[in-house]
Amino acid sequence: MSVARYIYWQDGEHWLGYFEEYPDYVTEGETLEDLQAHLKDLFADLTSGEIPGIRKSAELALP
Q1: What is the pLDDT at residue 22?
Q2: Is 19 exposed, middle or buried (0-12, 13-18, 19+ CB in 10 A)?
Q3: CA 27 to CA 16: how far, in whole Å?
Q4: How far apart are CA 19 and CA 2, in angstroms?
Q5: Are the beta carbons of 7 and 17 closer than 8 angstroms?
Q6: CB 4 within 8 A of CB 21
Q7: Residue 31 gets which letter from DSSP?
Q8: Radius of gyration of the chain measured on its C-alpha atoms
Q9: Domain residue ranges in the chain
Q10: Alpha helices (H) in the chain, listed in sequence order
């Protein structure tokens, strides 16, 4: 089982979230559980190789 970190928040009646590694791709749900289901679908799309030009975030160690 793999793990992907995500950021989420509630905005009015909706829950929004995105993966730390893919901050440009936000999804939403009506409940936190619904958001998590949408995030799983989004992750599958983002990692499938079917979508060209996906931007990611990363860390770089500096001296």
Answers
A1: 96
A2: buried
A3: 6
A4: 14
A5: yes
A6: yes
A7: S
A8: 13
A9: 6-47
A10: 32-47
Distance CA 61, CA 42 (A): 29
Residue whose pair of structure tokens reads 């793990």 in the numeric block: 3
Where does 1-63 show beta strands of DSSP type E?
A: 6-11, 14-19, 22-29
Tens digits of residue pLDDT in 4-42:
999 999 999 999 999 999 999 999 999 999 999 999 999
What's the pLDDT at 1? 82
10 Å CB burial of residue 54 (0-12, 13-18, 19+) is: middle
